[in-house]
Design brief:
mainly beta, 1 helix, six-stranded antiparallel β-barrel
Length: 464
């Protein structure tokens, strides 16, 4: 089990030396603050720390799902990434013991959750076993308690050491907050909207990073790496850091504020390679633009150990269509926010495209609006459409001017024959573009800006 020991007295985390040297106190969780808590035989304690899979119980932190237990007064060992143990040497600590038997500690619960079980957030103390002293019967086993006291004004002492011999821990410097390894989850959502033409070529949203528990008392740093993102470029964070579209774009740090459990980082897609939803549908990229990975920096040096919390968590970058002004359906099937195409099995009757007003209403203009829908073949591998495929038959006489109801809602229908080629099981892919254009030159009305064009574009797959 990976965990942190936080000293409120020293306002920091007990930290392994990187190679040799004394144990120190770090004000931020990072390399060296994550330690592996093991049984007295050196095997890692499996607490099964995980998120709840139930989406209605997001962020639930389950510390009792595994087979391992950790109770007050248990014998434990503490191991670093090099598989060597925190080792007591009188009042000093080293990391030179290769065997668990030379590095025994007793973990004692001082306060926190009820019962003997030690859980995330409890106050604990660690006592290092010392040679037996028969004069101290019946408790002949002496203990030196771990203490963090960097502000003792004595340059001859280490910031973290073992205190004097006693049966019980004493003083604030020997009390540590016990934190489970900081597991992560994340989600990234980019939203496009019909408010901003042309062709939905930009998308913006957030990367939401969640901690698996109540948050650390000091800032935790999360490392974000973009992987397999099929766009021309991304900008990331409040300072709009540019991110390369392919391969190793480097690691971008994100700091979780003190005590926070979740943070949202601005994310924007610039110049997507498949700016047309028809292109994304043809490339079977209807769900997302790729993925990125996140890992807690404190766990990064454990990444090769395959423990919970150390593996980078893959986060898919999902595309969502806001559909502010326009709601579209075809043959009774609606275009959804997270899809770029509508699939329709043609029947005997002509196919019908229905365009309705969305949640946002078009502001009134003097001459009203025109709605123009174009349906053109989109050549793509695996489909019957080619560049020479004729445009589907449509009614010749139609009034493109939108008729509004009293609440400024509208419904517009268009019937056409989609020209299904002979042979069962074949598909045709068409690109549908719906434009709503104001017929007046004005760009403001009652303080509200009038969009120069509202556009919705999607792929239409018609089965024969």
């Amino acid at each position: 089990m990976l965990f942190h020991l936080f000293s409120q007295h020293a306002n920091g985390y007990v930290t392994f030396p990187s190679n040799v040297g004394p144990y120190t106190v770090s004000t931020h969780p990072g390399p060296g603050t994550a330690m592996d808590l093991c049984y007295d035989n050196g095997s890692s304690i499996d607490r099964g720390v995980r998120y709840s899979a139930d989406p209605l119980r997001t962020n639930e932190f389950d510390v009792d799902a595994g087979d391992g237990t950790l109770n007050s007064n248990d014998k434990v060992t503490i191991k670093g990434p090099t598989n060597k143990y925190m080792t007591p040497r009188e009042q000093r600590l080293t990391i030179d013991a290769p065997f668990a038997g030379h590095a025994q500690f007793k973990i004692r619960k001082l306060s926190g959750s009820p019962g003997a079980r030690i859980r995330h957030g409890d106050l604990v103390a660690l006592g290092a076993y010392q040679p037996f002293d028969p004069s101290r019967s019946p408790n002949a086993q002496r203990l030196r308690w771990l203490e963090a006291n960097p502000d003792d004004n004595d340059p001859s002492t280490d910031p973290v050491k073992l205190g004097g011999l006693s049966m019980n821990p004493g003083g604030d410097s020997q009390r540590f907050r016990f934190f489970e390894g900081n597991l992560l989850l994340g989600e990234a959502t980019l939203s496009t909207t019909d408010r901003i033409p042309p062709l939905e070529t930009t998308a913006s949203g957030t990367l939401k990073i969640r901690l698996a528990h109540e948050g650390l008392p000091n800032k935790s740093r999360v490392l974000v790496r973009f992987t397999s993102v099929d766009v021309g470029g991304f900008s990331f964070g409040v300072n709009a850091t540019p991110v390369a579209p392919f391969g190793d774009a480097g690691t971008l740090p994100v700091e979780i504020p003190e005590g926070a459990r979740e943070v949202s980082v601005p994310l924007k897609c610039v110049f997507p390679r498949a700016g047309s939803p028809c292109g994304r549908a043809a490339g079977l990229e209807t769900r997302n633009l790729g993925s990125l990975t996140i890992v807690d920096s404190a766990m990064a040096e454990w990444s090769a150990t395959n423990r919970d919390g150390t593996r980078p968590r893959t986060v898919g970058i999902n595309m969502v269509r806001a559909m502010d002004y326009l709601q579209v359906s075809f043959g009774g099937i609606a275009l959804t926010p997270d899809s770029d195409s509508i699939f329709h099995v043609a029947g005997a009757m002509p196919a019908r495209l229905v365009v309705k007003s969305g949640a946002a209403r078009l502001p009134p203009v003097l001459r009203g609006y025109a709605l123009v829908a174009s349906i053109t073949p989109f050549p793509a591998q695996g489909f019957a459409t080619t560049a020479a495929t004729p445009i589907p038959t449509r009614p010749v006489a139609m009034d493109p001017r939108i008729t509004f109801a009293a609440d400024r809602s509208f419904t517009y229908t268009l019937d056409f024959d989609p020209l299904i080629p002979p042979g069962s099981g074949r598909l045709d892919l068409f690109c549908v573009t719906i434009d709503v254009v104001p017929l007046s030159p004005q760009r403001m009305v009652r303080g509200m800006q009038i969009p120069p064009r509202v556009r919705c574009q999607f792929g239409l797959i018609v089965g024969g």
